Amino acid sequence: MNRRRSARIFAGLGLSLALAGCSDSGDGLPRVAVTGKVTVEGEPLARGAITFRPDGAGAESSGAVEGGAFTIPSADGPTPGKYKVSVTETIERAEADKLNNFTLQPQTKPSKTTIGGPLEAEVKAEGDNAFTLDFPRVDASKGSKSKAR
Question: 26-135: what CATH class?
């Protein structure tokens, strides 16, 4: 009876430690959650990826964009500070036959293209880190700077 109780206590303790580990990135940095909306010239971005790159000290963070929205939980989020935010769009394109240069109809492969930017954003330690980011469609090599709202 005493062994069963000890086993339950150790099992519960192990589960608690495992769950606690899942909610933290494990790097000891004060990461925060970020959310928001992504548009390209006013239209919601269907699918893509968003990346927060630190403008100085900080932790880089990225997440998926679906239907013009993104959520990066605190376990994977950036640390407070200033960031350059860029977006990559996922576009489904037909896979071309390289030898005969014709399009295979049923198969598609994702093609990623950079939208423009980067935009500037400041992630706060406290409060709401919700951003509305409207990216212009520009040549990624030229770039443009805007501020996140």
Answer: mainly beta
